[in-house]
């Protein structure tokens, strides 16, 4: 089979992914695709009689239709919540540069995480590839969902694992520096004799980059360590297996598309209602009418009659109701908080927001696990212990609520040396106290006091906490008041 061959699951879902592409790009993209708004039969028959002269009928029909940007707004709102999250990153010293330069276009791990969350929400699938540049440094590439055209799972060491991944890439046409045309190539990863190999082929199957084992660096392509797996992760909306996951915003996209189709009929009906069609009959051959409008007078002769064909619009209200139903369906998808004109109670809104957070919760965890796995692949490729790598994200989307009284008591504890400054800061920024054993908290207090230049071994009452965790009195200090016990 040729390199252009696609996975059956790809063929089954490509229409959904293209729908999401159009939904995110907006109204212009939706209207460019004629399949999004089927042509009414009357317009089809009119174009059979005169394709050029009657083309305007469908053009006007499409122009009046309105596409609501619910999907794009929902994604922006979700990413606003995700942008508050701060990843916890742990890397070996030789890989610390990835925090600021991790992607093929020079962005850090945090931006990589945000990109992947965005694509997981919008398309339910993020192909992530680990690679090594010419300088021997690892980097990560993500592909558009529709460009990961083929994959295959087979037996590897007694377990089921990836044995083939094919990606579509676009490269600039270097013949003209001002031209924006590009050519398609296919990057292939496959297992040969339990070692991962990679090559790049053209549309005609010709070799552009020779087949080579991954794990090679430098000009001499010396084999450092042949990878026994494909450094490819298919991050999904629910898990990171190669199977295709559901698209979280697909229900909303379908509702928006149906609302767009209904709006074409709705606004066309309104247009026809406000523009009645004049008619005349019984005119003599000598009578000629060539001008119509409120400023024109007609001489119909002794036998002429005239009137208006008015569009009654009995179904307009039904169409508008159907459009409202689609809006409610989009809201119930749990992806966007919208103004519904006061018909939604506060409790219902809160429940829907919690559903949205639950969806984001699973997506954030799944993406964080994918990034961590990619970092472990890179560490193993570079010869580091993968266990030294960690990428964790706590999916907390609610703004922290800090109790001023608790914060004041924590501040007293920090000043008295019984609470670490880290505990105080975590409560201030997250609204939660850190969960750690007493001995870890005591060690943290000691480290903070040592870094501040306080000698804990000095037998000096000035540096030791007094009874009840209060600092001991100095001779020149004013006496403690009666509120000391508080």
UniProtKB/TrEMBL annotation:
Name recorded for this polypeptide: DUF4055 domain-containing protein
Annotated region described as Disordered, given as residue ranges: 438-486
Native organism: Pseudomonas marvdashtae
Amino acid composition bias (Basic and acidic residues), ranges on this chain: 446-465, 474-486
Protein origin, superkingdom: Bacteria
Residues of the DUF4055 domain: 248-381
């Amino acid at each position: 089979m040729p390199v252009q061959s696609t996975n059956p699951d790809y063929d089954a879902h490509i229409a959904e992914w293209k729908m999401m592409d159009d939904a995110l790009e907006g109204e212009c993209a939706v209207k460019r695709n004629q399949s999004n708004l089927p042509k009414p039969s009357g317009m089809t028959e009119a174009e059979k009689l005169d394709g050029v002269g009657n083309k305007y009928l469908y053009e006007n029909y499409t122009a009046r239709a309105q596409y609501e940007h619910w999907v794009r707004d929902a994604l922006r709102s979700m990413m606003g919540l995700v942008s508050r999250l701060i990843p916890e990153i742990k890397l070996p010293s030789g890989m610390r540069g990835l925090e600021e330069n991790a992607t093929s276009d020079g962005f850090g791990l945090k931006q990589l995480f945000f990109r992947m969350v965005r694509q997981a929400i919008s398309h339910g699938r993020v192909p992530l590839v680990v690679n090594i540049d010419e300088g021997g440094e690892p980097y990560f590439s993500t592909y558009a969902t529709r460009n990961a055209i083929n994959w295959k799972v087979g037996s590897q060491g007694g377990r089921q694992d990836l044995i083939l991944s094919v990606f579509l890439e676009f490269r600039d046409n270097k013949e003209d520096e001002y031209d924006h045309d590009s050519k398609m190539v296919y990057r292939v990863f496959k297992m040969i004799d339990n070692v991962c190999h990679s090559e790049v082929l053209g549309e005609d199957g010709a070799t552009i980059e020779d087949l080579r084992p991954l794990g090679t660096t430098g000009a001499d392509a010396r084999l450092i360590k042949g990878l026994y797996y494909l450094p490819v992760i298919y991050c999904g909306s629910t898990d990171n297996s190669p199977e295709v996951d559901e698209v979280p915003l697909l229900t909303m996209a379908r509702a928006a598309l149906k609302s767009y189709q209904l709006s074409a009929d709705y606004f066309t009906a309104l247009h026809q209602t406000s523009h009645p069609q004049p008619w005349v009959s019984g005119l003599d051959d000598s009578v000629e009418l060539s001008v119509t409008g409120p400023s024109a007078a007609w001489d119909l002769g002794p036998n002429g009659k005239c009137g208006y064909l008015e569009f009654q619009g009995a179904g307009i209200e039904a169409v508008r109701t159907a459009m409202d139903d689609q809006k409610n369906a989009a809201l119930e998808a749990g992806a966007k908080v919208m103004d519904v004109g006061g018909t939604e109670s506060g409790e219902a809104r809160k429940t829907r927001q919690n559903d949205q957070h639950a969806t984001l919760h699973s997506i954030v965890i799944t993406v964080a696990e994918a990034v961590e796995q990619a970092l472990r692949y890179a560490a193993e490729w570079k010869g580091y212990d993968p266990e030294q790598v960690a990428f964790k994200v706590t999916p907390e989307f609610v703004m922290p609520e800090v109790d001023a009284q608790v914060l004041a008591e924590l501040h007293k504890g920090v000043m008295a040396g019984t609470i670490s400054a880290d505990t105080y800061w975590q409560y201030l920024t997250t609204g939660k106290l850190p969960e750690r054993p007493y001995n870890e908290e005591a060690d943290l207090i000691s480290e903070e006091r040592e870094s501040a230049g306080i000698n804990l071994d000095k037998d000096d009452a000035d540096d030791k906490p007094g009874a009840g965790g209060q600092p001991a009195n100095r001779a020149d200090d004013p006496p403690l008041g009666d509120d000391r016990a508080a």
